[in-house]
Amino acid sequence: MKQIAVVMILLNISYGQFSRSQLVDIDEPHTYTPPKHYFQTSSFDEAELEDDGSKNPLDRGPYFDISASRNVTALVGNTAYLNCRVRNLGNRTVSWIRHRDLHLLTVGKATYTSDQRYQSVHNPQLDDWSLKVLYPQQRDSGVYECQISTTPPVGYSMMLSVVEPITTIIGGPDLYIDTGSTVNLTCIVRHLPEPPPLIQWTHNGEEINYDSPRGGVSVITEKGDITTSYLLIQRARNSDSGKYTCLPSTANPMTVHVHVLNGEHPAAIQGGEGLRCSVLLTFALLLLTMGLRAFPVR
């Protein structure tokens, strides 16, 4: 009997070890985690867009791909695009809303506003639903929201900044240069989303030829958030006087008038007409005084 009991105990131990080995081989349930830039955001909730690692990724249903920039800058008059990329949309609908007045602009591919400058553009290959704004003006700047028709709706907001480039020439509108000096015209272009591809300079309406026989004329352009173009004219002469215009390819032009002086003071040029009038008036008064002396009043 003791031998039978020992055999039974050994069998129980072996069965327990076999059971535990079977349990170890069973896969534990897990949840699929999409990339960190895929998650659902609550409508009008800016805090949800913070990537602090505490958000729960959405593993089913529609969600936004927010890897692209939320800030869009456009030039006045140039078509602007706000791009919204939605994954797993299914039978849901994408709408665009303007935050300033909570105005519904588009639903699906249809425009829901009397302002036909707003259009919806769908790219099914990329799952993009873009808001197209034709001829944007500075008043169109503000927050726009791409919204999915879930229950409750969820949205992703973007900021549109419509800017008008500013072109200035330092020292304008008139510059006075001594003969033989170097003319340095500095043109500055601000508020462009990217540097202008080209900046041209003209003199009295004609494009400047930097390889002309005159020589000593050059241009240096530094591109960046603020683009600066320097027009340098060495050994200035009287023929260099005139109207110079800076012409950025994507911004407004600006003009300056250059006066090359032959030793005279700028005030003499600015007040030339007034000086001539003053001389004539003085001469007339002198004649009048001499006449009164020649014919005294009795």
Automatic annotation (TrEMBL):
Signal peptide: 1-16
SMART domains, per the entry: IG, IGc2
InterPro entries hit by this protein: Ig-like_dom, Ig-like_dom_sf, Ig-like_fold, Ig_sub, Ig_sub2, Ig_V-set, Zig-8
Keywords carried by this UniProt record: Signal
Sections of the chain in a coiled coil: none
A Gene Ontology biological process term: synapse organization
CDD domains per UniProt: Ig
Gene3D superfamilies: Immunoglobulins
GO cellular component, one term: neuron projection membrane
Domain Ig-like span(s) in chain numbering: 62-161, 165-257
PANTHER family, per the entry: DEFECTIVE PROBOSCIS EXTENSION RESPONSE 21, DEFECTIVE PROBOSCIS EXTENSION RESPONSE DPR -RELATED
Record's protein name: Ig-like domain-containing protein
